[in-house]
Design goal:
Shape: elongated
Strand content: 25-35%
Distance between the termini: 40 Å
Oligomer: single chain
Order of helices and strands: EEEEEEEEHEEEHHEHHEEEEEE
Structural class: alpha+beta
Largest sheet: 8 strands, antiparallel, barrel
Radius of gyration: 28 Å
Number of domains: 2
Number of helices: 5
Helix content: 10-25%
């Protein structure tokens, strides 16, 4: 979700006052051969191509369309079966800028350069998240559910106070995974959506999808929060997390309305209080082999875990 990229030799550019460079008379147009993508990853302005793949024989592909190209009289010319366009250009080895006659410009970089930039940004983001997590003050507590006397660990994460365990209240229609009490003791009970909405103890409630998102955002966002929220043990294979905030998410699996169960050890799924449509409600999910936190609609009649958040 590898690409090969031609390597380009660096060459000095002679930039003219009109904002384009002299073409490479000694090397022809070979310096342009390869795959190029927009520098910021977005679509180019109107009148300019998005991504380019240029071949040595003067052909290429732009947005799935076959083209031919050449450098003529200090202009970069692209031709297709529909039209021909000529651009001023600037070329700096790993960057390539096209400028149309209306003055619009777009800068392209090699695929290798784009991937290196993306990796650098991702590394910086991970480091920032780790630094934030390391500085976080985890406020732990507990509360007793007056309905059955069970005591639950709690944790304050940001401005929210969450249960640090899955709910294990024996509400009507709730079930233990595979109907085994030992699974309730470890993972809590599984609930259909209608039951989950009213299953939390007084002073607590089933979180909305926005409340879930607040938690996930605090823990670094959809792509990385799972690692920081998952428990340090209990996940299959290499799926354990760092439990940086004391949330201690466990993979309690789920159940279908037909009575079957699946994915314990591999998946933790939790209801939100937010309805999607007449058949679906929103959930948040964590997986043993994914660092992030998933979100999507799920059949209301199926069974998932519940985490309550304080009113």
């Amino acid at each position: 979700m590898s690409k090969t990229v031609s390597k380009f030799a660096l060459a000095a550019s002679v930039v003219l006052a009109m904002a384009f460079t002299v073409s490479y008379a000694d090397r022809g147009s070979s310096a342009f051969v390869g795959k190029w993508v927009t520098e910021d990853g977005s679509s180019a302005p109107s009148g300019l191509p998005d991504n380019l793949e240029l071949f040595k024989d003067g052909t290429g592909i732009i947005e799935g369309m076959s083209i031919s190209w050449k450098v003529v009289d200090k202009r970069f010319v692209i031709s297709s079966s529909l039209k021909a366009s000529a651009y001023n250009y600037e070329f700096f080895g790993k960057k390539f800028t096209l400028i149309n006659d209306k003055g619009r410009k777009e800068t392209y970089v090699t695929v290798a350069e784009a991937e290196a930039k993306k990796a650098k940004e991702a590394k910086a983001a991970r480091e920032a998240i780790a630094q934030k997590a390391a500085k976080a003050v985890v406020q732990r507590g507990s509360f007793s559910d007056q309905r059955d006397g069970k005591t639950y660990k709690t944790v304050k994460i940001g401005s929210q106070t969450w249960m640090a365990e899955n709910l294990n209240y024996d509400a009507n229609s709730s079930k233990c995974y595979e109907n085994k009490p030992e699974n309730c003791a470890k993972y809590g009970r599984l609930y259909d959506w209608a039951t989950a909405k009213s299953a939390c103890s007084s002073g607590w409630h089933l979180p909305s999808k926005d409340e879930w998102q607040e938690l996930v955002d605090f823990a670094g966002g959809d792509e990385v929060a799972g690692t920081l929220l998952k428990a340090k043990a209990g996940w299959a294979k290499t799926g354990n997390g760092t439990d940086q905030y004391g949330f201690s998410a466990l993979p309690g699996g789920g159940g279908d309305s037909d009575g079957s169960f699946g994915y314990v050890g591999y998946l933790g799924g939790w209801w939100s209080a937010t309805e999607d449509d007449s058949s679906y409600a929103y959930l948040r999910a964590m997986y043993n082999d994914v660092s992030g936190v998933g979100r999507n609609g799920y059949y209301k009649s199926n069974l998932l875990s519940v985490r309550c958040v304080q009113d």
